[in-house]
TrEMBL record:
Keyword terms, alphabetized: Lipoprotein, Signal
Protein name: 5'-nucleotidase, lipoprotein e(P4) family
Matching SUPFAM superfamilies: HAD-like
Signal peptide: 1-23
Coiled coil: none
Domain of life, per lineage: Bacteria
Record Pfam families: Acid_phosphat_B (PF03767)
Amino acid sequence: MKNLSKSLLGLAMVVALSSTSFAAEKQFTTKDLNEESVLALSWVQNSAEFTALSYQAFNLAKLRWDMDKQEGKKAIVVDVDETIIDNSPYNGGLIDKDYGYSGDTWKAWSEDKSATAMPGAVDFLNYVVETGGDVFYVTNRKSMPEKNMDLKQSTMENLKALGFPQVDEKHMMLRTGTSKKQERRDSVTGMGYKIVLLMGDNLADFDVAFDGDTMEGRSKAVETHKMSFGDKFIVLPNPIYGAWEAAVYGGGEWYKKSAQEKSELRKSTLRKFEFEK
Ligand SMILES: [Mg+2]
């Protein structure tokens, strides 16, 4: 009996020790979190549906542009990343790495100038200019030389090489202060332009009404403005990142959350059918 309890104690210690080391090995890392993006990235890069949706957005934008018969100075406002260019290789590069987005890696990607055009974007933006309009690029790529972060030159070179029109000082509106875009949209109307339509992959690309950072607030704003989508606001699909993701993490200082917390929030905010009741 004594021997049995001794060996049971020994067994319990072995189990306790091995489960401790098992727990250490199983710590959830940023690499694990990055892995969760594989399917979204595969869809963006490999599905013909993604290409079709991009054509759909720019075809609709052309219809909408042609419908506008008002006289005077007219413009469209477009976001850049994941709206007119595809940066998915940047996120693809994070797969199997144990780090996430950073200013330094983003700068390296921007300076590589290898982003490709979203299908239909170059033709539509040139069409706007050929038919008398202006194109304003309102992007949160930073032009903040004081912070050693100025992506203006590399972004402009990338866009010019792809054949985008009006890539110049007047039309390129990078982020020099706040990430909020209303001031820059106001400066377009302030120059006497009527903004016929706006294009973006992020709701905040369209209106101040979408600057909220909670899932509930963002959903409500979409319901309030539902008639504007496909009309003045034209959305491009981005399942890789965006303000929607920050909202899943609860908004606020979401970026301070750990990889594990983020992964758990991704799962806990899903609607789930219970197979076993
Ligand atoms: Mg964007």
